[in-house]
Structures are given as C-alpha cells and as structure tokens.
C-alpha cells in the first residue's frame, strides 16, 4: 500500500482538523512496519491508558517520562564525576575517575566529557550537563517518534478521545489488506 493510501486510512479515522504532519508521520510508521507500530501502541495503551483507553494526556505522559529517564541517566553519569559537589565537572575530576576505569571505560569517559564540553573550557558547567541530558532525551525518543505517538490519536475510530487496542488493530488490519 502506498503512502497516500495509508494517509487515507489515517484520515478516515482522524478527528476533524487533524494535522497533515501527524497524518504523514503515522502513515510513514505504518508503511515502515505496521506490526511494530501495533506493538508500540499496545504497550503505550497498556502502560499509560486508563480503563477506557489511552488519551492524548497519556501519550504526553509517556513521551515526558521516557525522555526524563534518558535525561536523568545521562546527567547522573556526568554528575557522578562531580567529586566536590559544586555542580560542575572539571577535567581534574575527570582525571580521578579515568584512573579508576578500565581501558574501555577511560576512552568512553573522555568522549562523553569532550562531547558535553560545548564551550571547550575543560569544565562541564550545569548548563552543559543539562544540555547533554536533553540530547540523550531526544536520542531516546526523537521528535519524529513523538509525532508518531501523538498521531496515534488519529486512529481513535469513534472519536471519543480515547484510543483502544482494538482501534489500532483494525487500522493495521485495513492497512495490511489494503
């Protein structure tokens, strides 16, 4: 099924005024791997939907929590190098950690430090640590992936504001038959 046919499936299920970009993101995801899209939808509906189904708020919560976990993980790794607890990581602090690491770990620490040191000052300030965290968040769940998740609401066949697994299954089945 071509992209425009997929978009047609999405458009027929979408609420009035649904954005073209959302339709296209959903169509591309359906075209790439409809079973993966179904699995993702099932997981998000089960984890973030209520008894009636998944709402746009549930999708926003999922996106925020996935990104927050990635951001926190990246920031935690850098803050673990802040030996004097001043909120910054100096190269001297990195040197202490590097001595305690394996050969592979030393290279990885150096690369992470260098990548996060945007102003090349040999010190990671709090803004650089936050920025590195944000990069990790967007790497974990990109804006394009978030667009697909938001666009799932276009599969709300009965337009009641909640998405159910059955609605996604029906859309995927129509796509596959189509």
Description:
The protein has helices at 3-13, 20-32, 34-48, 56-79, 91-100, 103-116, 126-140, 143-151, 165-177, and strands spanning 89-90, 123-124. The chain has 178 residues and is mostly helical. The chain has 2 domains: 3-63 and 144-177, no CATH class; 66-140, Orthogonal Bundle (Recoverin, domain 1), CATH 1.10.238. Helix 2 crosses helix 8 and helix 3 (34-48) packs antiparallel against helix 9.
Name its key features:
178 residues, Recoverin, domain 1, two-stranded antiparallel ribbon
Query: DSSP helix count?
Result: 9
Spatial strand sequence of the major β-sheet: 1-2
- Helix percent reads 55-70%
Mean pLDDT equals: 88
Order of helices and strands: HHHHEHHEHHH
Poorly predicted sequence stretches spanning 5 or more consecutive residues? 1-18
Distance between the termini: 6 Å
Number of strand elements: 2
Gyration radius, in Å? 21 Å
| Helix vs. strand class | mainly alpha
Q: What percentage of amino acids are in beta strands? A: under 5%
Count of the separate structural domains: 2
């Amino acid at each position: 099924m071509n992209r425009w046919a997929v978009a047609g499936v999405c458009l027929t299920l979408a609420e009035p005024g649904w954005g073209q970009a959302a339709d296209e993101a959903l169509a591309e995801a359906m075209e790439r791997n409809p079973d993966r899209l179904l699995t993702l939808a099932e997981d998000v509906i089960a984890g973030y939907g209520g008894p009636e189904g998944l709402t746009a708020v549930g999708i926003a919560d999922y996106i925020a929590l996935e990104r927050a976990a990635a951001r926190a993980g990246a920031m935690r790794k850098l803050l673990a190098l802040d030996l004097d607890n001043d909120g910054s990581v100096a190269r001297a602090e990195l040197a202490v950690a590097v001595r305690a690491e394996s050969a592979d770990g030393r290279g990885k620490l150096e690369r992470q430090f260098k990548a996060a040191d945007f102003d090349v000052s040999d010190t990671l300030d709090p803004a650089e640590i936050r920025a590195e965290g944000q990069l990790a968040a967007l790497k974990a769940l990109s804006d394009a992936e978030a667009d697909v998740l938001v666009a799932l609401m276009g599969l709300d066949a009965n337009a009641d504001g909640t998405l159910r697994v059955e609605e996604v299954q029906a859309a995927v089945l129509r796509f596959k038959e189509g």
